[in-house]
Amino acid sequence: MATTDGFVGTMRKVTAHLTQNEGLSFEKSSPGKKGYRLAPLDVPEVDAAALLGGAVRDDVGALPELSEIEIIRHFTRLSTWNYAIDLGMYPLGSCTMKYNPRVNELVSRLEGIAEAHPYQPESLSQGALEIVKLLQDCLIEITGMDAITLQPAAGAHGEFTGILLARAYHQSKGNARKTVIIPDSAHGTNPATAASCGYQVINLKSNAQGGVDVAALAQIVNEDTAAMMLTNPSTIGVFENEIHKIADVLHDKGALLYMDGANMNALVGKTRPGDFGVDVMHLNLHKTFSTPHGGGGPGSGPVACKKILEPFLPSPVVAQGEDGLLHWNYDRPKSVGRVRMLYGNFGMFVRALAYTLANGPDGLRQTTEDAVLNANYIRKKLEDVYELPYTTPSMHEVVFSDKRQVKNGVKTGDIAKRLIDYGFHPYTTSFPLIVPGALMIEPTESESREELDLFVDAMRQIAREVEENPQVVITAPHATRISRLDETGAARKPVLRWKGPPEDAVEVDTPAKEW
Amino acid sequence: MRYLPKSDAERAAMLREIGASSIDDLFTAIPEEYRLTRDLKVPRQMGESEIIDYFKAAAAKNANGYTSFLGAGMYRHYRPVVIDSLVQRGEFLTSYTPYQAEITQGTLQAIFEFQTMICELTGMDIANASMYDGSTGAAEAVMMAVRITGRDGVLVARTMHPEYREVMHTYAQHQGHDAREVGYGQDGRIDLAALEKAVTDEIACVLVQSPNFFGVIEDIPEIAEIAHKKGALLIVSVAEAVSLGIVQPPVEADIVSMEAQSFGVALSYGGPYCGVLAAKEKYLRQMPGRLVGETKDTEGRRGFVLTLSTREQHIRREKATSNICTNQALVALMTTIFLTVYGKQGMRDLAVQNLAKAKYAADTLGAQGKLLFAGTPRFHEFVLQTDEDPEQLSARLLESKIIGGLALRKWYPELGNATLWCATELTTRKQIDAAASVLADAPVAAEAR
Amino acid sequence: MAYPEKYKYTREHEWIEVAGSVGTVGITDYAQNSLGDIVFVDAPKVGTKVEKGSAFGSVESVKAVSDLYSPVTGTVTGVNEELATSPEKINTDAHSSWIIKVELSDPSELDALLSAEEYEKFTAEETGK
Fold first, then answer.
1. What is the distance between the alpha carbons of residues B36 and B32, in angstroms, rounded to a whole number?
2. Domains parsed from chain A with CATH numbers
3. Any CB–CB contact under 8 A between A128 and chain B?
4. Alpha-carbon distance B357 to B363, whole Å?
5. What DSSP character marks residue A82?
6. pLDDT under 50 in chain C at which residues?
7. What distance in Å separates the CA atoms of residue A240 and residue B419, rounded to the nearest whole number?
8. Distance from A392 to chain B by nearest Cα, in Å?
């Protein structure tokens, strides 16, 4: 690190160590190397050109040619450049980066589960259908809703499905309505979803506590309102304590309450959306139910709803037949249709169910309590050094702002980058939009007190650096393989694929040349 | 609870420091009447061994030890062992979307390699970091074409996977798109004459799948010409990605939407799979989903970042190209490792083996019935018409522990007793012969006529 | 940077220079400065009708998108192609990096726009907030 005068914090969680360099697989390739061997062909050979005629392909393109050991090293080296939950706290607010249990991975790979073809006969899929049914029953009980579909592939896809249900419901009453109300604190997927379902978005300004202004809401809800999309707890981690009034205001005008379940991990076992007036909601199995984030997916976004919306659920739904077996029922005349082929991300259902079984009712409740405890602990330990824009009680996450640090020219994004040097993944920066310079911190239940204390220590030391030595924060990170990247250059002249070695490439010195 | 790293004493100490007298103090924002005061009615907490036992019992109720000739968009290929051992590394498995480039270069570089490989395979200029799956990817491609052309007519081949078409219709109906289907001819391909008639100045795109749902390879250059003549875009959906090892890529297309499940991803009763969108460079700004780009750090070292994110929902909100947020990163990584294992030569060898197995299967099983669309080039699937009702046939095959071809009547009643069969490199000659001998034993099919 | 006296300005931070019946439109230095490094300009095609006060395109930085509002009603007669490959020109000199040229259908619309002095005062108030 460039030494500068002034305070530089002590990194207690990490020690720098070497990581391996590794080029692109294409750059390491050489013709003739192989990482595969096929079984010998037990049927007559064919002449591809004769069979395919003009459709035959001569050249597969520049795929790499490498041996197995090189492939293992290639991807293992890449992996060591990533931060992960398995390495430590990952307080990315609203993403719920909790522990991903390993038994989930094991059971999802059992042969009868991993090798099950979605079109194999239902009589030979009873195990898979039982898993779907049991997970559905658990999620219905947890949310307090009446019916569910597991088909949506991710949270945003669940939102899309949920708003389609609302639309179909209104349509069945003769008028699909025109607008969807969304608070300004909402995640960007909400307005994008409403728009993709053909609705006009009406923005609702949050009140001074960062919550829904019920009086303002009452003024804008009318017969054109199809639904309101509400995240509860909100994106600032606050429970909408007037949630029942919100529901009443909407229902009075025949509108529906959609709950974005991104923050359901603050509620499981403590309260149920179905009980407080929610008509339709999605869940993120990769958040609340511990399925791995995998570097950005796969997710899974089940949608639960009240009875009035059940007829519109995507086709097919699981049903028990007269033969005592479970079946897929495709006879759904009012269904919104399919939102995805097949039945959804089944592999994620297996993991979410394994998580639910590992917890039971007591474990699920304790998990929620610990998540809320951890967030409040961080809040208590940092509120004297970071600005708390909303002092309403926090649930599973706490949102600070960089207001005090900006005076020294340091923004939330800089503090985030400096946190990397201290051995943590940054919190979510600059979201929600209603908090300028937000630091959105979600510890989850998976952090021990020791880890939380290390995080608090890092955040406090950074706050001191901002006061006494802001430059060290502004130029962070210092300990990573690479420093800050030129994002502007990346966007102005996008290079989105490897195109071969540059023509003017000069051969670099290799160790072999030295002797 | 074994996942929770706290003792009760620690919890109590933390509560004291917060200034709360009990954990319920932290939940007072929830109105009292909505607080849950009972246990959730879910199964009791289980030990790890019990969880494994539960899923083993469930797995045992699914097909085990059966020979399968099912394909129809989801394919059983060999999955090299290194894939699973690499994707189970916690640094890949338990990381998230690479917003912080400095500590997610592993995921970012892998996605960059993925984007490159997809471009090489499909013949397109650009590819995104993946979509949910092939069906939603095709629907997103249609919306993209509508945005590009400013037209709202959509033509879809009936030879496209029926469930893909259903998804496309769900998406289209709320966008005000006019989506219509184009039938197929005697050769099992889209009816070119009907297509030519249907493509007008109002049509945004023509959507076809190749190899199509019947396993038949569509005449992409011809379809492209018909579409382009009227200024419509051509979207080609590839449901069997392995075909690209030996089948000419759809370079004439404007957008390619692909399901990459075949590249080392388990069937897993329908997901998670891996959708891919690739396109001509000029359509970059209309591409939904995440994109990774190459750039340099302050010291001039190469690095990778998420880029062009202004297209996305978190910035553009209701004006975004799509509401898509997550991709299928881990599954995309699996496919990247698969393609690295097979490489340039292996992809060809693998595809040719599939071709050979399917040829043998089509010849052998075809002798016991009527092979439809027999003269048209196909990859590794074929449609067999039998005298016997598909359900009876299926029941007889199951007695020999064989899952036969998929009955097509539900989607294509006009094809009668037709079943769709698939053979891959994992299908053995012995299995094909065994299925053929069951077919040969068909009872006199008087009642089926 | 000084705001050219011969331009007229909008409260959405566009400038327009009129010669005869054709207006040349760009964004102000204040706008480029608050957006940061501009990476992309989404401009309409020649022949597009634009309406006073309505969005005709957008400019993007790495993490933000800002709509472009037309100061006048008319038809687009020219687009600055240079910006397609070099959007950074707006950052280096916003007041000479025009985005579109518009054939005015109602020159009287210009009367409602701000003068350089008025605009400068307006931005000072915005910053003061």
1. 9
2. 105-356 (3.40.640.10), 362-481 (3.90.1150.10)
3. yes
4. 10
5. B
6. 129
7. 55
8. 9
